[in-house]
């Protein structure tokens, strides 16, 4: 008989060495601790509509409930046919050509599909271009898949559009794919068609796959219009990601989709890999798939929230006004999504560690935000504010931020 090992240490896998997701990181732990002590924390850190009193359209809730009895079994690993058919139609309307039912994968939120799409593609050392700032799941998922995230800068002085020179300069022989997040989290930028055309041209020239995260495509303000990257790139392999979490306010259902378009004949092996990963997780949550068809086909109540007088629009306006009134704070007015990404002028606020800053803000003012470096922004001079709370709560929160920052000024 062999000897028993007595004291085994369990350490995390080396695969996680460069995997970082600060939105739910160490600062959140401190917030939980403070809550356990009995403090009430104003949480403007997560883009989750439901806790802020946003409700899902009634008809999609009814669809899920009505179909619950028939949603007990596993389904096809790509998802239910009526839901995938609705997704196909949606992309036809958005001008994406050649999408077939077999090109649609339903997932437990966009999050699962992002990880699957990168795991299926990347070998160790393959590079993926990701915007800075980004939604950090993209960077984390590239690292987890053995790839190397390479960040291209978005330019705050140009409405946070991608800096195309920087993007072009960062393409190498190892670059496999280029990620676009539009409308953008955390900046709220919505890219004009011409900017997207130039990004597509770079992907075309260098043989890159395009990954377009369009989860906020219906949350648009003012005159912003959304163009699907894939609509401009019929000759480039595109994976477009979207879902129900934001526009239909059911983030907890975990319901999203991925659509493949472009020259699929050159991606047969990759898509086979994606099929393997989809099969390994059997299928996405079936009850939530029943929400997709009526969500996409029904009355788009999100429009009432983003048009003038709509709740999301008013909150975006008020948050932006209040933030830009703080001395030394500037902010590009968000054209989409549910965030503001203000800049703290380093001459006024000499911040060295922005995680420390949000931790101090939490402890002093019981307000929880996420630091800009949590979105892979390279300088400690930005914060992300979620614009989901009602106006009075935003006023309270940004008032606390202003008071706190007074103590940080030079
Ligand atoms: N992509 C972006 C840009 C996001 O902001 C989020 C959530 O905040 C996600 C993806 C994840 O969405 P899901 O709930 O579909 O997993």
TrEMBL record:
This protein's record includes keyword Chaperone: no
Signal peptide: none
Organism from which the protein derives: Carbonactinospora thermoautotrophica
Cofactor field: pyridoxal 5'-phosphate
Gene3D superfamilies: Aspartate Aminotransferase, domain 1, Type I PLP-dependent aspartate aminotransferase-like (Major domain)
Enzyme Commission no: 2.6.1.2
Catalytic activity: L-alanine + 2-oxoglutarate = pyruvate + L-glutamate
Enzyme class (EC, first level): transferase
Oligomeric and partner information: Homodimer.
Transferase found in the keyword field: yes
Family per record: Belongs to the class-I pyridoxal-phosphate-dependent aminotransferase family.
Keywords associated with the record: Aminotransferase, Pyridoxal phosphate, Transferase
CDD domains in alphabetical order: AAT_like (cd00609)
Superkingdom of this protein's organism: Bacteria
Protein name: Alanine aminotransferase
The Aminotransferase class I/classII large domain, residue ranges: 41-397
GO function term, MF aspect, one: pyridoxal phosphate binding
């Amino acid at each position: 008989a062999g000897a028993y090992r007595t004291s085994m240490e369990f350490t995390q896998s080396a695969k996680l060495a460069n995997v970082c997701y600060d939105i739910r990181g160490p600062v959140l732990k401190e917030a939980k601790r403070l809550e356990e002590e009995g403090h009430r924390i104003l949480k403007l850190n997560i883009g989750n509509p439901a806790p802020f009193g946003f409700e899902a359209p009634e008809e999609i809730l009814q669809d899920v409930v009505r179909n619950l009895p028939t949603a007990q079994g596993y389904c096809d690993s790509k998802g239910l046919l009526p839901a995938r058919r609705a997704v196909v139609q949606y992309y036809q309307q958005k001008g994406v050509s050649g999408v077939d039912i077999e090109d649609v994968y339903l997932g437990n939120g966009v999050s699962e599909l992002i990880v699957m799409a990168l795991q299926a593609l990347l070998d160790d050392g393959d590079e993926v271009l990701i915007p800075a700032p980004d939604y950090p799941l993209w960077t984390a998922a590239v690292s987890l898949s053995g790839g190397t995230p390479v960040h291209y800068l978005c330019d705050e002085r140009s409405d946070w559009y991608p800096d195309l020179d920087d993007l072009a300069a960062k393409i190498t022989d190892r670059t496999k794919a280029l990620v676009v997040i539009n409308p953008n989290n955390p900046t709220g930028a919505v890219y004009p068609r011409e900017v997207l055309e130039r990004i597509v041209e770079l992907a075309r020239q260098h043989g890159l796959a395009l990954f377009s995260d369009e989860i906020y495509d219906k949350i648009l303000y003012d005159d912003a219009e959304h163009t699907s990257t894939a609509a401009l790139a019929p000759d480039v392999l595109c994976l477009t990601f979207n879902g129900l979490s934001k526009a239909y306010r059911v983030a907890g259902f975990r319901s999203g989709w991925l659509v493949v378009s472009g020259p699929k004949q050159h991606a047969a092996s990759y898509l086979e890999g994606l099929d393997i990963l989809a099969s390994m997780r059997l299928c996405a949550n079936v009850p939530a798939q029943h929400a997709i068809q009526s969500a996409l086909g029904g009355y788009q109540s999100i429009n009432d929230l983003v048009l003038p007088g709509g709740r999301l629009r008013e909150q975006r306006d008020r948050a932006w006004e209040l933030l830009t009134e703080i001395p030394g704070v500037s902010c590009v007015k968000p054209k989409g999504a549910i965030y503001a990404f203000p800049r703290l002028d380093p001459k006024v606020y000499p911040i060295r560690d922005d995680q420390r800053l949000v931790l101090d803000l939490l402890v002093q003012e019981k307000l929880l935000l996420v630091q800009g470096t949590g979105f892979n922004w390279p300088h400690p001079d930005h914060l992300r504010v979620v614009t989901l709370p009602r106006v009075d709560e935003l006023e309270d929160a940004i008032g606390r931020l202003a008071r706190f920052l007074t103590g940080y000024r030079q």
